Amino acid sequence: MTPAVHLHDASVDRDGTRVVHNVALTIAAGSWFGLIGANGSGKTSLLRAIAGRLPFAAGGSCRVDGVERTADRTARAERFGFLPPAESLPDSLRTRDLIALVGGRARDPWPALEPLRAALGLDALRDRWIGDCSAGMRQRIAIAAAFAGGHDAVILDEPFNWLDPVAAFDLRAALRTMVGRGLTLVTALHDLGLLAASCDTGVVLADGRIALTFDAETLSRATQAPQAFEREMIEILRTGATR
To answer: Which DSSP helix (H) or strand (E) runs through 206?
Structure first.
C-alpha cells in the first residue's frame, strides 16, 4: 500500500534557523503515527510542514499518497485536517459558526464529527461563544475543527493538552475507532504511555533529528514492560542521543 506520507532528508527552517534536520520517516495509510520529544525538539515545526503550514527546506522530499509535494504547500494543506491552537480560536464566534467556517458552507460538517460527538461533548458546546469557554472546552472545539473538513488524514499537535482524564480517555478511544475505520492520524505527544498504548508506529525527535523509530512490535513490547520503556525513552530525551 502506498504510504500516506514518506519523508526523505526533510528539513525545516524557522526564522533562518534549521530546527528539523534530514528527517526520514514513513506513515502508513490508515494508521496512528506518534511523534514524541522534549519541548523544542522540532515536533510542531515538523507537523506544521507536513500539513503545509510551513515550507520544507530545499533538498529533501515529502511524498503524500505517493506524489511529490515538497514544494506544494497548498496541496499538503488541502490533504490534511490540522489542529489549530486552542488559544487562537476567535472569541466572537459560536462553536457552530467556527465549525461551519472551517468545514465549508457548501456541505454540512457535523456528520464528519459524529464519531467525536460524545467524546468531545460537542452537543453542549455547539451554541456556546468561544470566548466564554474554558481552556479545556476550547481544546475540544479546536479538535472538532481539525475534523470538520471531513479529511481522512488528520494531524493533531498535542491533542490531549487541557483535557480532563475522562475526556482524554474518551477521545483516545474515539480516535482509535476512527483509525480502525481507515483514518490516518498523526499526533505529537508528551505521554510515553499514551504513545505505546495508542500508536501503531512512531518516532522520538531530539534536537530536530530522529533519535529512535518505533515499529508495531516495539510498541507492543512497550505495553508489556511500560516502566522499562519509559526509563529508556526518558534517557534518550534527556541526552538527545540518536540510536
So the answer is: strand 201-206
Residue 240 is given by DSSP the state: T
In the sheet that 61-64 helps form, which strands lie side by side, from edge to edge? Answer: 17-27, 5-14, 61-64, 67-68
Q: What is the mean pLDDT of residues 109-138?
A: 96
Contact 42, 210 (CB under 8 A): no
Give CA angle at 135 (107, 119), nearest 5°.
Answer: 55
Q: Is the pTM of this model over 0.70?
A: yes
Instruction: Round to whole Å and give the CA distance between 189 and 192.
Output: 8
> Which three cell numbers, joined as nine digits, stand for 121?
461533548
Mean of pLDDT values over 190-210: 90
Question: Domains along the chain?
Answer: 1-80+151-243 (3.40.50.300), 84-150 (no CATH)
- Residue 164, classed as helix, strand or coil, is coil
Residues 113/142, Cβ–Cβ less than 8 Å: no
